Amino acid sequence: MPEVTMFLWGTATASYQIEGAVAEDGRGASIWDTFTHDPGHVRDGHTGDVACDHYHRWSEDVMLMADLGVNSYRFSISWPRVHPEGRGKANKAGLDFYDRLVDELCAKGITPAVTLFHWDLPQALEDEGGWLNRDTAHHLAEYAHTVSGRLADRVPMWITLNEPFIHMVFGYALGTHAPGKALLLDALPVAHHQLLGHGLATQALRANGAERVLITNNCTPVRPASGSPEDLRAAEAYDTLHNRLFNDPVLLGQYPDLSAYGVTTLDAVRDGDAEIIAQPLDGLGINYYNPTRIAAPAEGADTGGLPFEDAGVTGYPTTAFGWPVVPDGLRELLTGLRARYGDALPPVYVTENGCSQADEPGPDGVVDDQARITFLDGHIEAVRAAIAEGVDVRGYYVWSLLDNFEWAEGYDQRFGLVHVDFATQKRTPKASYHWLRERIAAHPEP
Ligand code: BGC
């Protein structure tokens, strides 16, 4: 079993975004296969059918990480590769793939950090209601049991869910991600069922000897657009939804006050659920991309019943996605979590941070992504500052190792430290890759 005593420097990826091979070795369909093949959902009709072809090129990709000098790799398992029908019979060939990957990582001294669910739900479970159906939480636990039964002897770090907030909002409330449902606030049961799944999966992982169990939440420091009472109230409501809905039940054992949304109790909650959800954790995974500025809805604005509007953060450089680059927001977020949860906050791992840029090789073949270097340098400095202010941060993972399938944006947004030519699958380490290697080698701690 690899050691996890030092600061973890890693890269992060997700199965559907890199693997391809969607119909190989008995993999079942996922909601993203269905969604991408239904025209009109993804930019330019892109799909993850081939993606980075990592299913066949994994060994080259592990070499890239070894050369980069990271000591950890966060990747997700494709649920339908392991349970093609979402439950029941496991697919040996699917498990064998991850078994080989984990062996290779261990051989290279790279600690595997496995995410169980990074949004590619088996289509068979979606056909039964997906995360609107409570049973899906139990199926997640069964899948956690299968995977950890095979890998927990070599994988010391487990992440049950990736960004359940984003999955609920984009997948079930707005419909811009798979499974493409636009239920607005009627999507709230998806929050509870994912959290219940997290709790049940945590129990299953521990039963198989998993050493460290985390959940990864997407968080954002929320700034009110002005000091007016209306904007302050709106910002608080947004903070509740984005930052507290998935952290409070896990860390404090209760849901935050959702009255700003007209919700007094969540109908999906049953007796005993709160205890299952609030299992002690060994860490909290945090994904940070940018802060958010929130205003009260303008007079007559159609917000679909939501008590806030995104006022946009201005005055900062932006990424290719148009997201503001605010490194100090990461320090603000981490110290804010510590202030909010105090001793209930377990060690924190920044499980994703990165930026998309329009990176292409120059005539000399070099991909000179200076803006990403500036981005990473600033955010690593923010982690250092948060640690100096007393936050127990134990790891930092760059999103992402490779340019990959960026969900509704297809292959348009490039987040990789390594450029991928999707026509030839040629990998070219960018300038930021070489910079990060030097940075890690020179400073084993941030
Ligand atoms: C997700 C990744 C995604 C990244 C950039 C995170 O929300 O976990 O899958 O690619 O952000 O959008």
Give the names of the bound compounds: beta-D-glucopyranose
- The shape, in one word, is globular
Q: Please compute the radius of gyration using only Cα atoms.
A: 21 Å
Strand content: 5-15%
CATH topology: TIM Barrel
Low-confidence runs of at least 5 consecutive residues: none
Query: Major sheet: order of its strands?
Result: 1-2-3-4-5-7-10-11
In sequence order, what are the helices and strands, one letter per element?
Answer: EHHHEHHEHHEHHEEHHHEEEHEHEEEH
Number of structurally distinct domains: 1
**What CATH architecture do you see?**
Alpha-Beta Barrel
Structural class: alpha/beta
- Say which CATH homologous superfamily is assigned: Glycosidases
CATH class: Alpha Beta
- Largest sheet, strands/sense/barrel: 8 strands, parallel, barrel
Query: Tally of extended strands?
Result: 13
Span from first to last CA?
24 Å
pLDDT average, as an integer? 98
Number of helices: 15
Q: What is the helix content?
A: 25-40%
Describe it for me?
With 446 residues, the protein is an alpha/beta fold. It has a single domain (8-441), classed as Alpha-Beta Barrel (TIM Barrel). It is 38% helix and 15% strand. The protein has helices at residues 15-18, 31-37, 54-68, 79-82, 92-107, 123-126, 135-151, 164-174, 188-207, 229-244, 248-251, 273-277, 328-341, 370-388, 431-442; strands at 8-12, 72-76, 111-117, 157-162, 212-218, 222-224, 283-287, 292-295, 309-310, 348-353, 393-399, 418-421, 426-429. The strands form three sheets. It has an eight-stranded parallel beta barrel with strand order 1-2-3-4-5-7-10-11, surrounded by five helices. A three-stranded mixed β-sheet has the order 6-8-9, with helices on one face. Strands 12-13 form a two-stranded antiparallel ribbon. Helix 14 (370-388) links the parallel strand 10 (348-353) and strand 11 (393-399). Helix 8 runs antiparallel to helix 9 (188-207). The mean pLDDT is 98. Bound molecules: beta-D-glucopyranose. Beta-D-glucopyranose is lined by residues 14, 17, 162-163, 166, 218, 287, 352, 399, 406, 415. Beta-D-glucopyranose (BGC) binds next to loops.
